[in-house]
Predict the structure of SpoIIE family protein phosphatase.
Amino acid sequence: MPTPYPSGEHRRVLLVEDDDGDAFLVRELLAEVDPDVELAVVQSVDEVLRRGELERADCVLLDLNLPGTTGLDGLRAILQADSVAAVCVLTGLDDQHLGIAAVAAGAQDYLVKGKADGEVLVRAIRYAVERRRAEASLLRLREEQLAAAESSRLERGLLPSPLLAGSPVRAHTFYRSGRTRAVIGGDFFDAVLGPTGTVHAIVGDVCGHGPDEAALGALLRVSWRALVLAGVDEPQLLPKLQQVLVSERHDRSLFTTAATVALRAADDGSSRLHALVRLAGHPPPLVLGRAPHTVAPPVGLPLGVRPNVRWQAAEVVLEPGWALLLHTDGLIEGRGADPDELLWTEGLIDVLAAERDRDLDRLPERLVERAEQLNGGALVDDVAILLLSHDATPSDAAPAGVVVAVGDRA
């Protein structure tokens, strides 16, 4: 006779039966077929609940004809106490309709007394346990899916929509979290038209990859946007953002890198724009065109490393048709054309030169694709890309790549 359960698998069965003769018969049938089944006998549902027997039982065999209970009341009481209990009900010869009703009410199976031998009894117990286990697994999976969907909706709400209406600037973006099954990571970006007509942009990266860092990155982005919209002077944006970081970080060792750009119209009334760039331990922006190159002011310390830091700025003039690329280091920390070297900014410049005819709407995603091809697989870190350009259709927005350095200023 085959073993009903895998070798070494133990089952504790709780029999709720007030008839000593029926309880003795069930015990003998189980012992004959599978002596590893441990049977505990309780004479009423009230006793089951009072003694906490459900917590120790893999399966419940429940007589529906117990004193003090009517119809399915006993079954309902057990399932109310433990909604995932595996219950098989026992009925008399003339109560098969009650057994069917019990299954509809949540029992896993029903057995008719006098018709169930040991094999049938053990098989019913095994199937009841496995079905309930499968149902519980499906329920947990569904709960996890709902929680993940809710988390994704919340995280998507934290991703920015650049506020550039009324400005001569257009934003093309890409964002992907390096965390498994996450929408946002510690990287962040934003672009906002300030109250004086200056367009401000930021790309930042909170060190670390957990949900706490993701939450901090979202907080820093929202805080930066609030500072811009409140009209805080551009030189004070990074110092104010550092104050937020220091007050909100959960670990004193956490720091954040950032690159900021402030775009304003030229004083001579031309269509050129002046770009003021500051770096806080972050990769520099790149001016696109036939010969892409960096805008590289002195690189200051990351935010949160030391108080009272000053971040120097470089100012450049962007001619009509300009495009400026800001990104986090996740884009350039994979392998480059030389497998022994990382891509870094130099390799990204080569990629941009090869993609110079790509329309700007498609370019951020294409840069990630090219970086993954060179890396030989997916990039493991968060990737945030903010590509700013003259507000024109993609076909008219081919970057001129003309930049004139006009000096640095604090």
User: Anything to note?
Assistant: The longest helix spans residues 118-158.
